[in-house]
Amino acid sequence: MKHVVVILDGAAGWPLPELGGLTTLASANTPNLDALAYAGRVGLAQTVPPGTEPSSSAACTSILGYDPVASYVGRGAIEAASMGITLAPDEVALRMNLVNIAGGTMASYACGHITTPESRAIVSELAEALGDETFRFYPGVAYRHILVVKGHNEIVEAAFTPPHDISDKSIEGHAPRGAGSELLLDLMERARQVLLTSPANLARAASGGLPATDIWPFWPGVAPAGLRSFSDVYGMSAAMTSGVDLLNGLAVLLGIDRLDIPGVSDGSDNDYIAQAEEG
């Protein structure tokens, strides 16, 4: 018997005045979802345990059948695994967004939804200017990248605020704070100076795109230990198709096959038909 798990990431939106008080999902034409609901059973599941950050990391770990507390892996380490990054015991991986901060306000946590080619060029310049024995930069997809810090595992105890949590709000009090934060704050300041003169960043601004003013590290994680593979736990094989590093990283860590399907992306151009037919 085959089982298919479809994750509608981001479907739980806020009601919007321009949609008559409906959410985007409530206002959408969803004949296939309607058919599934009609033919199946509908219920509620709590995928984020109390006290756990309400993020895709905890929720998707739960959906795959793992306890996001007992089997906790920091999101930075999960996304690093997706990118083929092997972490040493003394290394911490953090998600690193390219962001735009204007007048002390988080104007865009996604740098105006920068394209992957543009952001990779910018992160490559950051790596050339700032990479050393302590810091390594890895370009990812769109605004999402990975920063690896060596020799400072205390960073996992620091407090971080995801930039999307403070969209259009002041960044005051939300920069990394606590253990190891001074190291990151210094890097963020030096990165700001690099971005001011980055040829790739200036080219984006010249073409009308929102430039990256800052890097924003958060969601730290270290190499996981003791995770059992999906097949060992459930006695069945599994495959994953996704355009984002979080789910692909979970697939790597849990021994789930990753399907390489042309047209799969992290945006609205994703080829859902190809995913359904080849998945």
Features:
Alkaline Phosphatase, subunit A, 279 residues, five-stranded antiparallel sheet, 7 strands, 10 helices, two-stranded parallel ribbon, alpha+beta, 2 domains
Short structural summary:
The chain is an alpha+beta fold. The protein has ten helices and seven strands.
The main β sheet shows up as: 5 strands, antiparallel
Series of secondary-structure elements, N-terminal to C-terminal: HHHHEEHEEHHEHEHEH
**Class of secondary structure makeup:** alpha+beta
Cα radius of gyration in angstroms: 20 Å
Give the percentage of residues in beta strands.
15-25%
The pLDDT mean sits at: 93
The residue ranges in which pLDDT falls below 50 over 5 or more consecutive positions are none
Distance, first to last CA: 15 Å
Q: Which descriptor suits the 3D outline?
A: globular
Number of contiguous helices? 10
Helical content band? 25-40%
**How many distinct folded domains?**
2
| Count of β-strands | 7
